[in-house]
Design brief:
About 45% of the residues lie in helices and about 10% in strands. By secondary structure, it is α/β, with parallel strands linked by helices. Among the domains are: about 60 residues, no CATH class; about 110 residues, 3-Layer(aba) Sandwich (Rossmann fold); about 120 residues, no CATH class. Strand 6 and strand 7 form a beta hairpin. Helix 2 crosses helix 3. It is elongated, with a radius of gyration of 31 Å. The protein starts with 10 loop residues before the first helix and ends with a helix.
């Protein structure tokens, strides 16, 4: 029990004097907190675990007048994903000139895609901007497509020595034009070396940088000899034309993309790739869609789809691949009627239709020549290697959900098409090199042509379809 005299006594002053050189005992501290004493809250905040009820209770009280504590509270809420509370407290710190609050406020708005707020935030003269703050302001204008303001900002960056790296990125990513762009990423679009190419597109600085990193990784892959990176470049905002759900494949209104991204009519490539804030990576004919959180392995896997490879992991029963039998589907997957696979065998007639039959034929001819002459229904075992290299006819997981269709693959072991941690096997690379055009996707112009036709825009559809390459 704390007993204090009442006449001519100020507990507020008493507690201040008492705590000048020492910490209060627990009973007095508890009483002072009940009295909402600022200094008691300061002791409590400093001695409580971050994020605890006690820490938050005192922090909220202190944040009214202390911008550093307001920033601390806002930073904690940001880390917890409490964006509304984070914005409130970080804004208090920003308005009092706390740089940490300003930077974290910009991070918050970038993560929540609230770019207009970034553009409106007053952060003082450009001479005082550091690279992170400048990049955030730049990214806000890129994400909202304010080209005139971007051009003006680029000129200011050019006049500030410490901001020149950002100016060079604006030139490199074609955000602004310059006679001789400076490129850190070296594209390789020699037609003799790379018969196919892809342009990587994004409308935010962080995404363009990520594309650049993925492109550098991809150049080391064994697919780079067939399909090269033509360019990494900026395009104006396009996210509004897309449906984005974390666990759902990215889908975009491609007629809208064709209408709004007019610069794509001159993209120097067969394919384009768009990076978006979230959603499942996938390929739709000549367009590759990627989540900004995806890594180089996922990107290379999607490029393999462009070149004619199908997933070897289990697909939904409703997936188009598993709706019918098709021996001209891809390099690595063929589908047959489950009824025709009897007792673990398929017929030689079926085998001869497989895209990888040329790899098996010499062994078949050598071991079963006489039998093959007698009947076209010679049975060939499934799930057994038929060549010394391990090639055969193996049941893939691809259409396991289907009762009527069975999918076959040429090798038993894991590959990139069912596990991103594995490379594309030499057999697949060899098959691809024999006839690159056999299963590849049509160019992205075909996407836009078909989308425009469906939108009843015949003139635009014809223009795009005339550019398409199959």
């Amino acid at each position: 029990m704390v007993v204090v005299p009442s006449s001519s006594f100020s507990f507020y002053d008493y507690f201040n004097r008492l705590t000048l050189n020492q910490e209060p005992d627990s009973a007095l501290q508890t009483f002072a907190l009940k009295q909402n004493h600022i200094k008691a809250h300061s002791f409590n905040f400093a001695n409580s675990d971050e994020g605890s009820f006690s820490w938050l209770h005192s922090g909220v009280r202190l944040a009214r007048t202390d911008p550093m504590i307001s920033t601390d509270i806002g930073s904690w809420h940001l880390a917890q994903g409490h964006f509304t509370q984070a914005e409130r407290y970080l804004m208090q710190g920003h308005l009092k000139g706390i740089d940490e609050a300003t930077h974290k406020l910009l991070v918050l708005w970038q993560e929540s895609e609230e770019h207009s707020k970034i553009n409106e935030l007053d952060v003082g003269g450009i001479a005082n901007w550091d690279l992170d703050l400048a990049a955030a302001k730049l990214n806000g204008l890129m994400a909202t497509g304010e080209q005139d303001k971007l051009t003006l900002l680029a000129a200011k960056f050019r006049a500030q020595t410490h901001l020149l790296p950002l100016y060079y990125e604006l030139v490199e990513f074609k955000v602004i034009s310059q006679a001789e762009p400076l490129q850190r990423f070296k594209a390789d679009i020699d037609a003799n070396k790379c018969p196919l190419s892809i342009t990587l597109l994004a409308n935010q600085l962080g995404d363009l940088r990520h594309w650049q990193q993925l492109a550098t990784e991809y150049q080391k892959s064994n697919l780079n000899q067939f399909l090269c990176i033509a360019d990494v470049r900026y395009v104006k905002p396009f996210t509004h034309a897309c449906q984005l759900e974390t666990k759902t494949p990215i889908r975009c209104n491609e007629a809208q993309l064709a209408s709004e991204l007019t610069s794509l009519a001159h993209a120097p490539s067969d394919y384009i790739a768009l990076m978006l804030p979230k959603g499942g990576a996938n390929v739709h004919m000549g367009i590759l869609y990627l989540d900004r959180a995806d890594d180089g392995k996922i990107f290379t896997h999607e490029v393999a789809h462009l070149l004619g490879f199908v997933d070897e992991y289990k697909l939904k029963q409703s997936h188009p691949v598993c709706q019918s039998t098709n021996s001209e589907l891809s390099w690595n997957i063929a589908t047959v009627s489950t009824k025709t696979v009897s007792d673990g065998y398929i017929s030689l007639q079926q085998l001869e239709k497989l895209p990888w039959y040329t790899q098996i034929a010499p062994t078949i001819n050598a071991n079963q020549a006489n039998q093959a002459k007698q009947t076209t229904l010679t049975k060939i075992p499934v799930n057994q290697t038929l060549t010394p290299e391990g090639v055969g006819v193996f049941v893939a997981d691809t259409c396991m959900e289907s009762k009527s269709v069975t999918a076959f693959k040429p090798i038993q072991r894991n590959t990139m098409m069912n596990n991103h941690d594995y490379p594309l096997p030499p057999l697949y690379v060899h098959l691809l090199g024999q006839n690159l055009s056999r299963f590849k996707m049509p160019s992205y112009h075909y996407n836009f042509g078909v989308a425009m036709y469906r939108a009843k825009k015949g003139k635009e559809a014809l223009s795009w379809l005339n550019k398409a390459r199959h």
